[in-house]
Every structure is written in structure tokens, then in C-alpha cells.
Amino acid sequence: MSIEMPVNLATTENEPSSKNPQLLSPKAQLVQKQFVQQQLPVIYATESLAVFQKPAGLACQGGTGVKYSVDSLLGSVDEFAEYKLVHRLDRGTSGALVVAKSRLAAVALTKAFHNHTVAKKYIAVLEGIPQYMQGTVRNPLLYTGTKTIAITAFSSEREIAAAKSAITKYKVLKTGTIGEAPVSIVSVEILSGRKHQIRAHCAQIIGCPVYGDKKYGGTANSMLCLHCAEITIPVSTHLTI
């Protein structure tokens, strides 16, 4: 996915960088807001939070090789500049992304995600057909710095200390083919939020990598077929949802 900033927001002596929204003219702010809303449509909002539809290919935060991110796009518009990410989706994953509108909301939402009281459901296309049409994967996960490993048997005390518990529920909704290759459309619910959890559990335990997930043994493809379809946040007396 390639994102191009509006031409009239290019940095010049008369048109400051969109990284400084307070310096943009009202007209430029309007153009920038429209651009951001095209890239990140709002699918739900309250006084406390907004849920954006994140496209595949857009990183949540900046880093090496990242030109634009959800953070930088929101930060380029006055109205969204104070919004805070409270969880993340992988760069290749599309779908619902929750953002807090205030510091108070960010604290409450971050706590809810950290305590795993937020339910997240995904739709994925898997390469192959799982042996069981539904099930629960409980293998702990160990992130090595570049990849997540699903543990089937611990090899050391250090590994035990570093691994994190992870629970993934899945159900096959439909099977079919892409070309001549068998594929499955599955619903996935994660009861924890570990890095690359779905991708690691599907590839290494279920035996069916997410379609397009080259990192975890899938076929190289321009898009990772993983979409966050539903997020359920418990109502709190401290937060309007």
C-alpha cells in the first residue's frame, strides 16, 4: 500500500509540514482532515473513543522504513492530534482499530486490553484445511525479536520465563480453493493479545498459515488475508462507550 500526502501539504517555505498541524492554514487543515478520513474511515465513535478501519499495509506506529503510520496521520490533524493508540494491529492486518480521544480514556482502554477483558474477533483465510473444523489453541508464545514461536515443549528455564500464555479459538466457516490450492475461511477469537498470535498459532499449531503470510510459511502475496472484524469492550463506569 502506498500513501501519498496531498500536494498542497508538501513542505515548503509557505506551507509547513503536516507534522505540525497547528501551523497549517484552516484550508490546509481541512484538506488534510479529508485525506486522513479517506485513509482511516471512522466506523464507530463515542465521546471517549473512535474506531477506525485500518487498511492493510499501514503501520500503526512509525519505525524503520515506515513513511506514514496511523500515529503520524492522526497527529497531522488538529482534531485528532490528541488521540492515543490503545492497541495495535500488525502492518499487514486490516480492520477495527480502537483509539482513545483523551488521556483518561486511554488509561481505561489500555488497562482493558492489558487485562484481556476486550474480546477481539478476526476473519482469516488460511492455506489448507485444518484437521479439526473448530478448536482452541493454548500453546504459549515466545517472541524472538523477529518472529513468534508457538511452544510445544519447553527446552529451558529461560524459555519458560520468557514465554507468554496465549489462547486462540477458531472455527472454519467455509472451505474452497484459490487456483488449485485448498483454503479455509475461519473466524478467530483471541483471548490474549500477543504479537503475531494468530499468525503463529495458525501456522505452527493448526498447520495452516494465514494466506499471504510469507513470514510464517505462507505463500508470498501482496496482502495478508487477516482482518479484525469485531472488538467488544466492556462498559465501564469510568468510560462512556
Automatic annotation (TrEMBL):
GO terms for cellular component: mitochondrion. Pfam families: PseudoU_synth_2 (PF00849). Residues 1-22 are annotated as: Disordered. The keyword Isomerase applies. GO terms for biological process: enzyme-directed rRNA pseudouridine synthesis. Its EC number is 5.4.99.43. It comes from Coemansia brasiliensis. Gene3D superfamilies: Pseudouridine synthase. One of its GO terms (molecular function) is RNA binding. Pseudouridylate synthase responsible for the pseudouridine-2819 formation in mitochondrial 21S rRNA. May modulate the efficiency or the fidelity of the mitochondrial translation machinery. Belongs to the pseudouridine synthase RluA family. This is 21S rRNA pseudouridine(2819) synthase.
